[in-house]
TrEMBL record:
Coiled coil: none annotated. Keywords: NAD, Oxidoreductase. This is YALI0C08811p. Residues 28-207 form the 3-hydroxyacyl-CoA dehydrogenase NAD binding domain. The keyword rRNA-binding does not apply. Pfam families: 3HCDH (PF00725), 3HCDH_N (PF02737). SUPFAM superfamilies: 6-phosphogluconate dehydrogenase C-terminal domain-like, NAD(P)-binding Rossmann-fold domains. Belongs to the 3-hydroxyacyl-CoA dehydrogenase family. Pathway: Lipid metabolism; fatty acid beta-oxidation.
Length: 307
């Protein structure tokens, strides 16, 4: 079991610590009602018992997300994981909002889960600095963008900025990457670790380096599999089968790329390539072409496989 200790926090960038650094968190706003944001909202309400504002400027996307949450809770009831009353209580702790400013004004913590577009995230954190309480934790679910850069966009709010990078699908995967920027305060780190623990997750702390831990390792693996397909070394089924049946991977790299989203894979590879300047991170030409074609994987109905 993960145990939060001041010694562990102190080991990150030489933070000094006091006996108790974390602040009490009872309410959370999640920005973005897509697959990641919805999962974070559901787990926060279910496992941590938090009051959650789920925010999306698109009413249709918000409605779709909340309906999917209802289906997930119904499934949990059907499988005996929750009683009907418990599921209703979880659902009652989540409310949908389309107005960002009003939905973040009075909460203890925010987790941003919008697409991996740097300017979009920078603009959001610039606004969050103005619209939130001065001790609200400002977390991002980014999978690749520098936390130091995002924190800089928050201006005076930079010490409150951190990354809590959840893994997909959030209700299933236990791991969460916690990444600090140069400006992140020890109180922000301690509070984020405590909230993640309450959500039933196992945090791994990473420095603010391109790709962090998971994607620094995972995405080049996926990209190399795509290059293997692109150059005719093997067919897609053979590539995935040998990794599943010969290397004990639960899913082949091409199927995994489809599940993640090929546009997301490309965005992360571009960050790795641009931020390091190392040619080993050059995105596959075929990956670029699939994204150009709108073949984004499972979410678009076609990627390396048809869905």
């Amino acid at each position: 079991m993960f145990r939060l200790t001041t010694a562990r926090i102190a080991s990150v960038r030489g933070f000094s610590t006091s006996a108790s650094l974390s602040k009490k968190v009872d309410s959370l706003s999640v920005i973005g009602a897509g697959q990641m944001g919805l999962g974070i909202a559901l787990v926060a309400a279910n496992k941590a018992g938090l009051q959650v504002n789920l925010i999306d400027a698109n009413q249709g996307a918000l409605d779709k997300g909340l309906k999917f949450m209802d289906k997930l809770l119904e499934k949990d009831v059907g499988k005996g994981r929750l009683t009907s009353d418990e599921a209703q209580a979880v659902r009652g702790r989540v409310t949908g909002h389309t107005n960002l400013q009003s939905a973040v004004a009075d909460v203890d913590m925010i987790i941003e889960a919008v697409p991996e577009i740097p300017k979009l995230k920078f603009d959001i954190f610039r606004d969050l600095n103005e619209w939130t309480q001065k001790d609200t934790i400002l977390a991002t679910n980014t999978s690749s963008i520098s936390i130091t850069k995002i924190a800089a966009a928050a201006g005076a709010g930079a010490p409150r900025v951190i990354s809590a990078h959840f893994m997909n699908p959030v209700p299933v995967q236990k791991g969460v990457e916690i990444i600090t920027g140069l400006q992140t305060s020890p109180e922000t780190l301690a509070t984020t670790l405590e909230v993640v623990k309450r959500m039933g997750k196992i945090p791994s702390i990473s420095k603010d380096s391109p790709g962090f831990l998971a994607n620094r390792i995972l995405m080049p693996y996926i990209n190399e599999a795509i290059i293997t397909l692109e150059t005719g070394v093997g067919e897609k089924e053979d590539i995935d089968n040998i990794l599943k049946n010969g290397c004990a991977m639960p899913m082949g790299p091409l199927a995994l790329a489809d599940f993640i989203g090929l546009d997301t894979c490309l965005a992360i590879m571009r960050v790795l390539y641009e931020d390091t300047g190392d040619s080993k991170y050059r995105p596959s030409v075929l990956l670029n072409k699939y994204v150009d074609a709108g073949w984004l994987g499972k979410k678009s109905g076609k990627g390396f496989y048809d869905y």
